[in-house]
Amino acid sequence: MRYLAILGDSLVETLDRKSIYVLLVLCVLLVAACAGVTFKEMDAEAVAKNLTNSLGNVRYARKDTIWVKSYAAVHTVSDARALDPGRAAALRFEFVLAAKPAGEFHKAVWTWDAIERGTVKRSSDPVSGIEEGRVLDPGTSRCADYLRARFREHMVFQTEVETLPSEADEVRFRVRTTHVNLEMVEGAYEVSVFGMGHWQLPINVATFLTLVQLLLAKTVAGFWGVAIAVVFTAGSVPNMLQKGTLDLVLSRPVRRPLLLLTKYAGGLFYVMIPAIALIGGSWVFLSWRASHWNYGFLATIAVLGAQFAILYSVTVLCGVLFRSTIASILVTYATWFACFVVGTLRELVRVDVLSWTPPAWAMKLLDGLHLVLPKTAEFDKVSAYFIARGNYGVEMERVMDLQPEAAAAPIEWWTLGISSALFIGVMLCLASWVFSRRDY
Length: 440
Known about the structure:
Blueprint: H1 2-15, H2 18-35, E1 37-41, H3 44-52, E2 57-62, E3 65-70, E4 74-82, E5 92-100, H4 102-117, E6 130-131, E7 134-135, H5 140-153, E8 158-164, E9 171-178, E10 189-193, E11 196-200, H6 205-233, H7 236-240, H8 245-250, H9 256-290, H10 296-322, H11 325-350, H12 360-372, H13 376-392, H14 396-401, H15 413-437
Helix pairs in contact: 1-9, 2-9, 6-9, 6-10, 6-13, 9-10, 9-15, 10-11, 10-13, 10-15, 11-12
């Protein structure tokens, strides 16, 4: 029981710090901002216009090569209506799409077809069907395939295209779309903040929630929150080792390693309490407002705690070795930066983004450093994975298929977990060994 009492003292010590309440106030403000976000379903015409407003732009995306060719076809939507307006969410729409001039629309079709067949790789490559002074008619089947493929880019995976009679250099189609999940359709909702202004989302609700949650989990909490926590917790061990304070601490009938581990646990409390308040609170309000409950967002609390646990083990060891708050902060930040550089370089080389293969010795050195150092850079990937999986669900694979330029190295789950646990264990064992043997 005395060990639990010491752990309780660490929690009380954490709650006695004024800085944690400043962090909690900031968390409450961010949660309140999430509570003010509201979503409203758009009508059929607005959804149809958003689906067709980029049909004149044909994109090529392969690894590190991305280019866009734009054509001057004007696309208009008419007779748009929901086919099941009685439902809470209209999941089927029908509208008439017109493109004028027909030649510009056909150029887009031919360019898309050439990209799909792999006959063009650069924007300057000649495209079959587009000749000097005239453009061939690609045919109704190819035009329908083009429209279905382009709507898939907007997360509409079930589309029926019927060709209508053309009028005065204008091609016309009747389009029927079926949406398994309207939250996955781009432009299907508008968003407002505290009722001030209404904006149609150019992206789908799932992607919007993903971006907001990534901002909160990776940038606000995962970077700034951890960086601030390192500063405010770095003085815990050096302050304990001061003359007078240490005499009082060592007077307890508890072994030194356990005393040090309770200090370590107190630092973890300092991060986990604001993290639960920020991510848990924002999850409740964003899910309620969007009627979209992403439980993967909650998993980022554990990811954030694991990331800080790695860095704080370095802080504790430095506190025992140097008994200096400044030195603990600087060494922890340096370790964090080194882990980020090694992890990022290794991933860039593995996915061939740099289009450069380093020498064999350099790769061995990079792999060795990656094996020894904790993989803090990969925790951002873990947070992104849980958030995206929770928002996109079964559609996640389709989303990734539509974004080949976003390809990244897969998460090495076993390596990440084992190496992180071993690193924390080594740091804390070294800190406990030094603390036990040193005569203060």
